[in-house]
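User: I'm new to structure prediction. If I give you an amino acid sequence, what do you actually give back? Let's try with this one:
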Amino acid sequence: MASGGSTDEVPAPRSPETLARQTFDTLALAELARRIVSGDRAALARAITLVESSRPSHRRRAQELLQELLPHTGKAHRIGITGVPGVGKSTIIDQLGINLIADGHRVAVLAVDPTSRRTGGSILGDKTRMQRLATNDRAFIRPSPTSGTLGGVARRTRETMLLAEAAGYDVVIVETVGVGQSETAVAEMVDFFLVLLLAGGGDDLQGIKKGIIEIADMVVINKADGDNAARATRSAAEYQGALGLLTPATPSWHPPVMTTSAIDNKGLDALWEKIEEHRRIMTATGEFVTRRQTQAVTWMHDMLADRLMDEVRSQPRLVDRLGQLEAEVRLGRLTPAMAVETVMALLRDGRPGATGDAAGPPADA
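Assistant: Good question. You get back a string of structure tokens that encode the predicted 3D arrangement of the chain. For your 365 residues, that looks like this:
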């Protein structure tokens, strides 16, 4: 044991909630907002930790901070990128980000990793896959777990996007997990939704969910290099034909299909030109503003659903009743709809231990 009042004990790791509490109990939100707007990366990271905290008091302060920063948000290109595993999402983002920085942009990447429902763990390895961006002071990469959220989009990704915009990042890229019907959730928070695919036609077309193609603003066949270049070109023509059979989301924009090689930095300049062209057209028609307004309302509805579930979980006796209802549903004795009605009745009544109509279905149901 050390003498003289000193100690060699190693402090225990601190959780995000503990770090947030220690930081934000002593730092005024107005001062934190000022630091974020000035481009302080440490302040941005701390604010994201606050946003990601599950403590009710931190959530309230996070919303106060976002309200304070609201005038400094909304000017960035918001881009969602998704694709099948192995398509090269991280590689293409790394190269595109370096290109954009060379042109004077500041780039934030919100890389969402899948969370195991069984263990709650995530890999969070995107910084190792975007090595050049990770070491560039004009880029900011924030890996975050999905926490089981539908669509592979972290629960607080929207808030993190606003914080990055307030910090002066004029390109915000959301890299999502995998590809599939649920992955369309990302389109509800970005201006431009990009789907990356691998070369291949025929049966490969059947493996792509129609829903995700319908909302794509662009389809890109990546890894169009070497012996794969000709195959990628053929695949692009096939996908363009498939898109021609679908009604576009807007008459002002027909989603193009392009080929790229992230490793050779081929086609990425043309890709960015299309993204900028899309924004110019959508702005001119008024659809850009309408899209963001619709997304804001969708965000409100999603948060309302989250808050209702939080309200259920915050009442111990209601949690106990919820467990009973789950057991009844699992055994096939109660329909999910009736279970939900029971929970809603308990919330309306305001007394989790209430009996009567609010307590659930009759005993012989």
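You can read the tokens as a compact description of the fold. Here is one thing that stands out. DSSP finds 15 helices and seven strands in the chain.
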